[in-house]
Amino acid sequence: MRAKTKYVTMPSKTILPERDAAREPVLECVNLGITLGGIKAVEDFNFTLGRTEIAGLIGPNGAGKTTVFNLLTKVYQPTTGTILLNGKDTHGMNTMQVNKAGIARTFQNIRLFKNLSVADNVKAAMNNDMHYNMLSSILRLPNYKREEIAAHRRALKLLSIFDMQDMADVRAGSLPYGAQRRLEIVRALATNPSLLLLDEPAAGMNPSETADLMDNIRKIHEMFQIAILLIEHDMSLVMNICEGICVLNFGHIIAKGTPDEIQSNPAVVEAYLGRKKEA
Amino acid sequence: MTMRRLINLKRVEARRIYLTYFIVIAAYVICQTMSSTKFLSSSMRGMLVPICAYMVMAISLNLVVGISGELSLGHAGFMSVGAFSGVATAILLQKVLPFAPARLAIAMIVAAIFAAIAGFLIGIPVLRLKGDYLAIVTLAFGEIIKSLLNNFYFGVDSGGLHFSMLTDTTRLLKGGRLIIRGPMGISGIQKIATFPAGFILVMIALMVVFNLVNSRSGRAFMAIRDDRIAAESIGLDITKYKMMAFVTSAALAGAAGALFAMNYSTIVANKFDFNTSILILVFVVLGGQGNMLGGIIAAAVLTILPEKLRQFSEYRMLLYAVVLIVMMLATNNAEIKYFLSRLNPFRRKEEAE
User: Which of A129, A198, A217, B220 has the fewest C-beta atoms lying within 10 Å of its C-beta?
Assistant: First the structure.
């Protein structure tokens, strides 16, 4: 269990971990909302994430958690509200630009480049860090070789975080399930994000794999000093590694707080288990 | 790893690339020797250049269909843009540049540029579409290019270059030459396309495609093909890379068109119709999407086959169709594939365990 994080309330009424209080939050959502097919899938989503905070987004099925991720990464354009990323308004940006601005994500149903090798999956994500042009690649000019070698080294280094460097030349689609999940995280990290969004990273994992995953998430948090927001149904994982938790139900935030606060919050218990019957 | 050993993709791919280069070079050496020792019939000799042109077409379309994952049905359109611009350039240069190979090279480069421009212009609307819609619109653009060229007049005289559409209003001065004559196309072409030139073009096309595929652009093409949403999420510019693949492919098709046209004395736009586009797609599908060597072999076989079937006179196209169906079935049959893979001498290390 991690040491409890001390939270402070900022003058702007946002709550940040004490260690991040001096710096601008990585993410600030103000009144974020979207209407999908006439239904308000997410409404009044106000949320702030500190520069190095690990937070969890939980809630029953259909609560709008993945919709929030899709809003943050601009898969959907929000109907109301603003998203500030590192203090910059992301209004009008598309998915690609949001990634360049610092958000990387994984997907609930794994989305790897199945026919590419493991290393190529990671190197594809480094594309924006590479600068040689088409002519250099066709003629194999020195800058092509230099950048390719550097990218390959970096890809192997990133893969080695999850102990996957030996699988670098294997087809990504042929990896076992757990390794595919890990590769998705490595690929996201390769884009140098300041905010990493993990959509159900432990889905389909057994308890020992989940325990490994927790260690790995802590490890990358320490190594890269980035903010991590994760959606997860596995409560042991959420309560263990998240410093702050935000609970969604029917598109609304019903509770925010530390793991201890959330566990004893009656609204959360009700959302998950239903109302207690009057005796 | 404790589990079964997984196939080393990088090694398999590298091997396939070297094998492709090797087979193309070997085939060239064999054909060239046979041709110079008069071992090859004259009809076969006449087919060497078209085969090379079709091989380049197969490689070029494979970049769009196999690597980039978009179905294009208008590839003959780019071939015709290249054919007409290339031949026109060669005719214009006839007096200035008497050295034929240099003229051919310049004509092919100009053809590639014109086809690339056509590819870019068509790519702007087309690449906004996906899947079947994209395929149908490329088909339409292929037909549009054909009709435009069928109504295009281009001449040269002492006063410079003259263009007109629909009817010939170029009114050339005496001594001028009407090069492109609408539906009559271009005639009186000097046949300067040679087998060695075709071989070089095939090698260049292979080099361009292989080197591009093994670069950041190629990774982007394939990433977008495999998962568009994930590709966007890692910051890949979908439009840019789709356009890059499309334009590169059009440029190669243009150069192939110029080579193809300069093997004949007359060329008309109707030669590059929907049937030709489909034929090229058949090369790609038969050879295996993304498999350059397969496409090259399919191009050669399917160009030679109709000639070899001539002895069956009226049953020729029927037999051609039957052979095509059998080949399609055979290359897509899992058991036959397995049998063929057992014959592959490189196989044992990766898959035997």
Answer: A129
